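Example A, followed by Example B.
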Amino acid sequence: MSKILVIEDESAIRRVLVKILSEESDTYNVQEAEDGLKGIEAVKKEDFDLVLCDIKMPKMDGVEVLEAARKIKPEIPFIMISGHGDLDTAVNTMRLGAFDYISKPPDLNRLLTTVRNALDRKELEVENKILKKKVSKNYEMVGESDSIEVIKDMIEKVAPTDARVLITGSNGTGKELVAHWLHEKSPRYSAPFIEVNCAAIPSELIESELFGHVKGAFTSAVKDRAGKFEAANKGTIFLDEIGDMSLSAQAKVLRALQENKISRVGSDKDIKVDVRVLAATNKDLKKEIEDGKFREDLYHRLAVILIKVPALNERRDDIPILIDHFSKKIASEQGTSPKEFSKKAIQLLKGYDWTGNVRELRNVVERLIILGGKEVSEEDVKLFASK
């Protein structure tokens, strides 16, 4: 049932609005407030799906109510009710976040259509949030070891900020999961997350990939093309394996971080970008700096926050939890029931040398699920998980 609040100081108009909405649908629970102050009190106490609010009211006008409500519960859509002389103000309230406005006396069809549209958008936003939470589980780090708990705690503290983060660790440890989780838990979660594997892009193309190019900048540049930084505007860019980036590209990334603007290859025109930068590497960047392969000034720009993801061999107590997690995930992907692993099988797997880290463990679990018995046994591990 949709809860609607009508804030209107003119009792006749308020009664008409309540009557129209109540008769329109038995799924509308309509409440009323006779002035702005009482309206704000109602908003504080209850969760409304929609508010209809008059603009001209004593004690607290509609603009003040809208601004106050958006600080308390910004997700509530507002439809403003305007008199003939309030139209400019009504339009201004939309800049402040109102969904729409209707004029007095209210046209029945216009009123009901606007109410339905506002409620539909509210429902869509709720569904998107639920979906977002489901999606976020794909990027949650699995484990309860001290080292993983430290990372989880750091993510909770760092994610809501715009601080740059440098994520280090061996291949297969889950550096990209940390980056995704930082984005998912940040205010930028609804904006793009753009991932760039710096090691997979040839050095002569990395600048074009990151910053775009203009037509004619080089032989194959047949038209203007936006780069990854522009694609990530308002969101997050994740520079994976940044230790493999060329020095010339590093210089341009440094400028983007310093000035919040980039220029496409072949162009002198600056383009402003609002991007949070996360980076990851499996290299020792301080050693790379000593060898002249990585810029020290860029390192200090990127490493505002340092997160080191431990190797799986350093958190063996998480292996049973990871096996259970992967077993359920793989079963879900294949439309089958999760397989149990015997205690001896798990104990044997805990003793392996996991040079490929979590990624290798996931592959081994999948292999054992496919080739092992109804319950994965110690013998199955010896047969199919040989190192």
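Example B, a separate protein, is given below in the same form.
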Amino acid sequence: MASYGQTNNAASPWQERLEAACLEAQIHPPVFQIVSDRRGGRTAWSSTVTVHGQNIAARFWYDGKNLNNAKEDAAEMALNYLTGSNPSSPANSRNGW
């Protein structure tokens, strides 16, 4: 049976990759925040993550039982920001070529 790491770890692949990217870039680790929005009789949940001075929001809203998906979504967006997949990312803003 293949091992995929610690099963009791709350972090998931995008969150782990973001943590590693912050460590490699020697910047503060990401700080996640869960946000909610009351929609009729239900509440929608999402996440933001602060990394490298930027507050980056997840793209989607989720049911309460899927809060980790919201954090994964925000982590993916933040990793894209840090690694240059976003035109305004630090990786694309460097001068001195």
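On Example B: The chain is about 30% helix and 25% strand.
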